[in-house]
Input
Amino acid sequence: MTKTTLFKSALFTSLIIGLVGGLLKILHLPMAQLFLIVSLLATLVYIICGLYEIYGSKRIKAVEKLMWTIGFIVLCSITGLLYLFMGRPRILRQYKILHQQDI
Output
């Protein structure tokens, strides 16, 4: 499983299972706690994957790395979606442009 697939899978699993767990908790149905725990674990997986990718990149400045870190810690789901749809493509686009100039 690639890093991209793991990040996407964990993010969407966390969002969907978290919503289901929240709904079950509101309705006072059994198994809500299990859904919320699985959602929390999936959240930790995509946060770790995202931060690993961010801190492993040499194309991101230290200030931006700090911004992503604070975002992942404070606003996990929103930052995860923003990183998936806006941050990653920009970083990968810059990487491709740099390698095309070398050829």
Notes: The chain has a mean pLDDT of 85. The first helix runs from residue 3 to 26. Helices lie at 3-26, 32-56, 62-74, 76-102.
